[in-house]
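Subject: design request, 315 residues
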């Protein structure tokens, strides 16, 4: 566990915030954590969250499941391949996705799954890994619980009822993404300027990112410099996405980030939980995020419409 940070904004490091007082503390402690999260989301759009309540054993199992999945044969992975943006589930091969539309496809492979809805698309499960489904469904539930707690803190930070964001996410239109960055051969040269993951912002409200120790994630500062989001054991990286930026009228910002080719001689694994509002949620400027000098910057948009626009532009 990491100590609370008195000064969140620095010139060279992404803030680390201890979330345990929000989970276990009194109203004053919860308000202080929410304040720190607001400042970090405004100054950086990124922060490390320690003490988030995610069981370590579940996280370790999820990484083990991810490694087993990506070790399957190409035929087995293609049997559960991603088909379209409407379902947004299944296996995505190396270079299939292009997060930066001006660069070649990303040097990574991925597998998407999501909380299933009674009448929605179904997840695709590899037949070769019978334990994969129940273990990932359990991990999904833990991610939803953690994301809801973060959303509660965000609501308090904006002087909104604690369930303001949670109620707008209660249909669980989220995406869990397992990511594998294969090791590149010695002497590999990025002729077309490709990256392991191109420069981009996330599409939804918030993202929870779990990293292994390989590193490579970089975040762009307000000054335009790129700094490393070095893995810190016991933390989850939280960042705000495009819809949260619209919702809060840039009080919380959506920050460009990428995964560089440094240390590409070794494999990298990460797990991202993309928290997205209900598809029918009306995303419009929150009342406490605008005034006469800072009027709403965006017209209202439905969360589902926004997501489809971004996904169709990516693949």
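Subject: RE: design request

Done. Sequence follows.
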């Amino acid at each position: 566990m990491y100590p609370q940070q008195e000064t969140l904004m620095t010139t060279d490091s992404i803030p680390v915030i201890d979330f345990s007082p929000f989970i276990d503390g009194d109203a004053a402690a919860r308000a202080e954590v929410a304040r720190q999260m607001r400042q970090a989301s405004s100054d950086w759009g990124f922060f490390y969250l320690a003490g988030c309540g995610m069981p370590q054993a579940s996280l370790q199992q999820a990484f083990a499941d991810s490694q087993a999945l990506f070790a399957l044969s190409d035929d087995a992975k293609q049997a559960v391949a991603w088909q379209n943006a409407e379902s947004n589930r299944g296996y995505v091969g190396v270079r299939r996705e292009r997060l930066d539309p001006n660069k070649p496809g990303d040097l990574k492979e991925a597998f998407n799954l999501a909380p299933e809805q009674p009448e929605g698309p179904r997840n695709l499960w590899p037949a070769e890994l019978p334990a994969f489904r129940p273990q990932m469904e359990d991990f999904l539930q833990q991610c939803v619980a953690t994301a809801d707690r973060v959303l509660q803190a965000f609501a308090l930070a904006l002087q909104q009822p604690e369930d303001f964001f949670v109620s707008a996410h209660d249909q669980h239109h989220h995406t869990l993404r397992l990511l594998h960055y294969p090791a590149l051969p010695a002497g590999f040269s990025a002729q077309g300027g490709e990256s392991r993951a191109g420069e981009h912002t996330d599409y939804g409200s918030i993202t929870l990112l779990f990293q292994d120790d390989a590193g490579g994630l970089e975040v762009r500062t307000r000054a335009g410099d790129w700094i490393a989001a070095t893995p810190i054991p016991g933390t989850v990286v939280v960042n705000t996405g495009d819809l949260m930026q619209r919702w809060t009228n840039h009080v919380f910002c959506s920050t460009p980030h990428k995964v560089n080719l440094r240390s590409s001689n070794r494999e990298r694994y990460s797990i991202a939980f993309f928290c997205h509002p209900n598809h029918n949620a009306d995303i419009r400027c929150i009342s406490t995020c605008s005034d006469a000098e800072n009027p709403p910057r965006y017209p209202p948009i439905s969360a589902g419409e926004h997501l489809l626009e971004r996904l169709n532009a990516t693949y």
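The CA atoms of residues 110 and 179 lie 5 Å apart.
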